Structure formats: C-alpha cells, structure tokens
Amino acid sequence: xxxxxxxxxxxxxxxxxxxxxxxxxxxxxxxxxxxxxxxxxxxxxxxxxxxxxxxxxxxxxxxxxxxxxxxxxxxxxxxxxxxxxxxxxxxxxxxxxxxxxxxxxxxxxxxxxxxxxxxxxxxxxxxxxxxxxxxxxxx
Length: 139
Fold this sequence. Notes:
Shape: globular
Order of helices and strands: EEHHHHHHHH
Low-confidence stretches: 1-8
Helix content: 40-55%
Strand content: 5-15%
Oligomer: single chain
Mean pLDDT: 78
Strand order of the largest sheet: 1-2
Largest sheet: 2 strands, antiparallel
Distance between the termini: 23 Å
C-alpha cells in the first residue's frame, strides 16, 4: 500500500451490533502539502523536534485531541485549515526543512546497513514465526 492509498477506516454500527457500513476517509491534501503525508507515515516525526512542532503548528488543539498522532490528525483536519497553511510561507518552509531532515535520515548508513554491506538481503527462515512475534508485540 503506497502512502497515497492509505486511509483512515471509520465503522458505523447500530447499538453495538455488527457494522452497517465502513468508510475510508483519506485526507485531500493540497499538492504543496503532500510532504505532510510522508512525514506523518514515518515514525521519524516522533523524535524529530521540527516535525513534531510542524504538526503542532498545523493545529495545536487537534494535535492534542489526536493524541499526538499525525495520521489521525490529517484525517480529521479541516480543508479550510489545509488551504490556509498551503499559502503560509513560514509553514511551507518549516515543512520543507522537516522533509529534508527525513530524507537525510533515510539516506544515512545506519548500523544495520553497515553490518550487512555486501551481503545478501536478510532472509527470515520461517515467516510464520516472525509474524507471530510481531503480532504479540502489537498487543
């Protein structure tokens, strides 16, 4: 699933019964704000001050109400606010700086890449075990 295909799923049910209908809600970002999507879907925002501050600047109340979750925030923010910040040169400059920081981070040769240099890709011997371990960590 690519970043442009991601969505927030909302389920509507009647008095706690089975869901009646499920809706996929995807934010319609103005083209100049598209880097926000990449920033939101990469956990780099969690330890990058500029990116956290960017989402806070986007809408402080919604940032707090979304429990500091940029994906949820983008799914709930008003189109009016998105259009407003799309014309804010200061916001756009900060967003571009945060996007450059993410790109730089992704290009770094981290410890694992240094250790695997010249070797074949890491193969998981039994995918069921890996899936089981990752599912247990999600609970």
